[in-house]
Amino acid sequence: MLLLLLILFQVIESPQYKRVEASVTQLRPALYAAVYINKGSTSVGSLSSIGLFRRYEGDTAWVNLRPNTITPGMGFTSFGDRHQLYLAGGNGLHRSTDEGRTWRVLTGWRTKEVLSVALDPADSLRLYISTPFGVYRSTDGGSTWIEKMRGFKTWFVRRVILHRVNRNMLYATGEDALYRSMDGAETWKQLSVGVPGIKWVMQHPADSNLLLVGTEDHGVRYSTDRGETWKQAAGLDTSAVYTLASTRDGSALYAAGFQTGVWRSMDKGATWSQVWKAPDFDAIYSVCVNPRNPDHLMAGTNGSGVFESFDNGRSWHDAGLPTAIVRQVVMYP
Asked: Hey, what domains does the chain have and what are their CATH numbers?
């Protein structure tokens, strides 16, 4: 028995075993792009030009992990060694626990079209999704879903996010306004942003009281009291802002939208200046900042794929997926 234990200990401590163990628990950094539509191709099957694409950091080739799926957005979460990838799809919420090799659809006919997903970082069983027919919550890992719309005035919900500190607080962009829940989506309150057409909502990563929204025709508005009162940001007064992004520490914020190019704020969203005019694109749907390198920026465009900058936005180049409408770009882990 003692001899068997000694042999087992030697195997576990061997370099070969440790390399295998590391390959299971550690993910290689990668760029993910959710392709909503591809204007230049109608291919199907394994060569489908829509779906969720992945490009490992340092590589140039994109691989389609979920072909033939319209993908408005995605989300990632980790619990111990278990990494989970969620995909908001035109035919439901998809989940993969093996880096995109296999998938399971978690929703049924009542939640067929999913526009965004919010994941509880402390509870792997609690999920929220936004759909054209409202917000839904699951407390059993996606096996069952319950509609949570008490307080909403309209059904269409574009985006739902979870507060970074308070797990019971959520924000959702409805068709008519911005909403907040203080009780885990049981009830919702409409917030008085002052303008219609809320396209995006983002919480500042370092200041839990600071909330920002991108609007259809009124640029960026921000709140320093969790959405109770709002101010107009300077620099993007009449622009349509479709997306907001931040460095990991919140020292720089980014905004983009319809014929705006990419803008940056260095004062928590109060003032903005343009860093890239992007004259060849009528819209930018997503901006991503590399969490390990704040000078590395990525943008998902409306029909021209992904573009990226390695010098903090001074110069940009084509990063692949030409003719694709990219709704979200994410670097993970």
From this structure: 31-332 (2.130.10.10)
DSSP lists the bridge partners of residue 174 as 157
Report yes or no: 241 and 257 within 8 Å, Cβ to Cβ. Answer: yes
Q: Which positions ≥6 away from 64 have C-beta within 8 Å?
A: 46, 47, 48, 49, 51, 52, 53
Q: What is the DSSP letter of 193?
A: -
CA dihedral 97, 169, 122, 164 (to 10 degrees): 90
CB 262 within 8 A of CB 272: no
Q: For the residues of 53-109, what is the DSSP string, one character each?
A: EEEETT----EESSTT---SEEEEEEETTEEEEEEEETTEEEEESSTTSS-EE---G
Sign of the CA dihedral running 118, 261, 297, 96: positive
DSSP 31-59: EEEEEEEETT----GGG-SSEEEEEETT-
**Nearest alpha carbon to residue 327 among 290, 288, 297:** 288
pLDDT single digits (tens) 241-293: 999 999 999 999 999 999 999 999 999 999 999 999 999 999 999 999 999 99
pTM: 0.90
Q: Which two tokens stand for residue 6?
A: 């000694």
Instruction: Give the list of residues 6+ apart from residue 230 with CB closer than 8 angstroms, or none.
Output: 191, 192, 193, 194, 221, 222, 223
Q: Which of 142, 191, 181, 146 is nearest to 160 (CA)?
A: 181
Instruction: Dump the DSSP string for 264-281.
Output: EESSTTSB-EEEE--TT-
The first and second tokens of residue 54, run together, are 């992945």
